[in-house]
Amino acid sequence: MTVDKGKKHWAQQDERGSFFLMKSVAVLTRVLGRSLMTPVLYGIVLYFFVTGRVARNSIREYQNNLAQWAGRSELQASSVRVFRQFMAFADSLLDKIDVWHGRIGLEHLEVDDPDGVRQLAHQHQGRGQMLVGAHLGNLEVCRALAQIGKKVRMNVLVHTRHAEAFNRLLNESGASHLRLIEVSRLDPVTMLQLSQRLDQGEWLAIAGDRVPLHEGRRSQVNFLGQPAYFPQGPWLLAGILKCPVSLLFCLKQQGRYRISLEPFADSVQWQRKNREQILTETVQRYADRLAVRCLEAPLQWFNFYPFWITDEQSSQ
Predict the structure, then answer these.
(1) Residue 10 pLDDT > 50, yes or no?
(2) Which among 12, 106, 212, 249 could bridge 8 via Cys, Cβ 3.0 to 4.6 Å?
(3) Euclidean distance between CA atoms 303 and 290, whole angstroms
(4) Which residues contact 315 (CB under 8 A, 6 or more apart)?
């Protein structure tokens, strides 16, 4: 999250500030401890709140759409509620550091997995799967899943050139079972590597709620009652890799994280003639599930950029 300088794609904003912010938070937390670091981080986020007009307006739009879609007036946006969402983001940054340092493990979490998705981690001969999450809650807490018997390596697919730098930061913090892989452009070599990781029983995790920078394929669907673009990438990737897909959400409620896992598709398959239809239907199913999860934690959807389709975009 960075200071707004015109309307830029979310990835361009993240490129400038996200790694520096996380590196700073990691170093200062190690030096000061969480109790002393908390007011410092709150001050940083307050600065972003005051100077980030686009970010404020984007969160306000999200809160209003959620309130209208759910028919719950208490969720309507106000300056206080928008600020609280910024503060929730600050808390999530501190929790990321705690996860990396091993201070949040599986024993500190509640796991909602009625269909036994995580039991696949114990199948030594089994192929891995793809977990599709969102910028809702704290996806980094999925590292706890990788700690089950030290049997699963989690590969988080990201749209940032800072992936290798983040990996060094993770290794410095001891998060050896979590690897970030930059996937803004998937070439045959990367696809082969991902397939090999799945064959080795590793898991892939990717967010399904951000359209990539380089004109990636996308579908227009309904999200919280309004038209929005969602990427087709995760579902194209799942189809090409021929792997099962589950949804992963990690929400903080009453000071404790709850990881929710739910099967989504045994496979994503299409033919040339119906590919767009199948992908759009799949994206819509995902958007519907994301909407329900947003209602469970209304202040934890951390997309600080314009998300819904404007009249100008729809005319293009």
Answers:
(1) no
(2) 12
(3) 13
(4) none
CA distance 121 to 288: 27
Residue 170 CA to residue 309 CA, distance in Å, equals 35
Mean pLDDT (the chain) is: 80
Q: How far apart are CA 161 and CA 122, in angstroms?
A: 33
Positions of E strands within the chain? 110-112, 130-133, 154-158, 178-182, 203-207, 218-223, 226-231, 245-253, 256-265
Q: Output the six-digit token pair for 213.
A: 């920078």
- The Cα–Cα gap between 272 and 255 comes to 47
Q: Render pLDDT for 149-190 as a digit per residue (tens, 0 to 9).
A: 456 777 888 765 554 555 555 555 455 566 777 776 667 888
Residue 249 has, within 13 A of its CA and on its CB side, a CA count of: 22
User: Using one digit for the tens of pLDDT, what is the confidence trace for 126-139?
Assistant: 788 899 999 999 87
Cβ 248 vs Cβ 113: under 8 Å: no
End-to-end Cα spacing for the chain = 27
Residues 296, 297, 302, 307: is their CA dihedral positive or negative?
Answer: positive
